[in-house]
Amino acid sequence: MKKYFDGKEKASLKSRREMQDQALSAMVKRGYKKSPRLKKLLDRHHITPARIQSREDLETLPVTSREKLVEMEMQDPPYAGLENPEIAIDRIFTSPGPVYEPHLSETDILWARAFFAAGIGPGDIALNAFSYHLVAAGLTFHNGLRKVGATVVPSGTSSSQIQVQLIRDLKVTAYVGTPSFLMSIINQSREMGFNFKKDFRVKKACFAAEPLLPQLRQVFEKEYGIDTYQMYGATEVGDVAYECSQKTGWHLCEETIVEIVDPATGRNVAAGELGEVVVTRINDIFFLLRFGTGDLSRLITEKCACGRTSYRLAGIAGRVGDAVKVRGLFIAPSQMKVISAQFNHLPLQALVSREGHEDILTLRVEKAGLATGPGAWEEKFRKVFREICTVKIDAVEYVANGSITTDQKVIVDQRQW
């Protein structure tokens, strides 16, 4: 009987860090010899390969944004001189920019951890609704599904009507794609006279490429009985994190070193603080160190109830350009939306000002009801805000209904520098 990938974590947090640090050190030494670009980068910063012994040592290197990577590949096509010329490449993918990405599909377990955590295995028939054309998504998800033993239906971006037909005829049990496309398929099935929950067997769904909104997750799980999971990655570095059955954050893949950094300095922020997700994927083919995703998140260091010991990302809070730093900590518009939703979608606006050398954070709140105001309500509001954004509110300003409109910025930086 064929043995499939077992995604259970076998290493403790300490031993995993030690293995990753050893692999990182070996990767940098190998890259220094094989990659002209990496050698030039280290030499320019007066860093010897032996100096990079752990993830903490990565802070001595700059973060490479996607825009910078595109520029580098245009100067030195196709891989900016970051590749290992001695290793045969199995597949070459591209993404807009363009960015060219060399892959080793047969040896890499891309996305297999995510599918294992979602409970997908040899008994499943999985519909893969990601494109197989040029971009990495379709084939890398396909490979991950095969690693855990699932049968794959490579439907790609076929029409929703064809997807319904495939789900029906092939008795599909799992869906891999975007949440919005699954909703389109469900709606199409209704138009074709089917009851998606009763007539079909889809009970698991793994989503990537776009956010899974809480209300949509509830629809999938409560109305259609589909267990949903989120996966997070980037075409330049592959899979980064995934949800387990607890759904309390995204576990970091063991093949990646993830830093949460201050976008302005490239330095790591304290655990629990918001910052940019920066990824180094340990491999021996493409020596891209400290890739800046542009996404904002924070690190959850508490152990998960599922038993996995890896740290988790607390979802994506927005993009780097959308966030505003207050007293050294970032606030993102998406965090404001989460807070608003917890208070019955109460219109909110954050104002950041400065008095002397101190940042002042004022929250404008529409007085939606009798309960909204100073006292117990405000005390709860301040507590929730600090739990989500980490930053303490200095003042709450109550305004009339309709004062905060959807065309206004959620966070307004009034500081003059």
Describe the structure in your own words:
- With 417 residues, this protein is α/β, with parallel strands linked by helices.
- The chain has a domain at 327-413: ANL, C-terminal domain (GMP Synthetase, Chain A, domain 3), CATH 3.30.300.30.
- The chain is 29% helix and 24% strand.
- It is built from eleven helices and 22 strands.
- The protein has helices at 13-34, 36-44, 66-75, 112-117, 137-147, 160-169, 179-191, 196-199, 214-224, 333-342, 376-389, and strands spanning 64-65, 91-95, 99-103, 125-128, 151-153, 174-177, 204-207, 227-234, 238-243, 250-252, 256-261, 275-281, 291-297, 299-300, 312-313, 318-319, 324-326, 329-331, 348-355, 358-366, 395-399, 411-413.
- The strands form five sheets. Strands 5-4-6-7-8-9-10-15-14 form a nine-stranded mixed sheet, sandwiched between helices. Strands 1, 11, 12, 13 and 16 form a five-stranded mixed sheet that branches.
- Helix 1 (13-34) crosses helix 2, helix 6 crosses helix 7 (179-191) and helix 10 (333-342) packs antiparallel against helix 11.
- It is globular and about 65 Å long.
- 35% of the residues are buried.
Give the gist of this structure:
29% of the residues lie in helices and 24% in strands. The chain has 417 residues and is of the alpha/beta class. Strand 7, helix 9 and strand 8 form a beta-alpha-beta unit.
Helix and strand composition category: alpha/beta
Number of strands: 22
Question: For the largest beta sheet, what order do the strands appear in spatially?
Answer: 5-4-6-7-8-9-10-15-14
What fraction of residues sit in β-strands? 15-25%
Main sheet, how many strands, which sense, barrel? 9 strands, mixed
Which ranges are low-confidence, i.e. pLDDT below 50, for 5 or more consecutive residues?
Answer: none
SS element count, helices: 11
Q: Classify the fold: give the CATH topology of the domain at 327-413.
A: GMP Synthetase, Chain A, domain 3
Overall pLDDT? 92
Q: What CATH architecture of the domain at 327-413 do you see?
A: 2-Layer Sandwich
CATH superfamily of the domain at 327-413: ANL, C-terminal domain
Q: Could you tell me how far the N terminus lies from the C terminus, measured between alpha carbons in angstroms?
A: 67 Å
Helix content: 25-40%
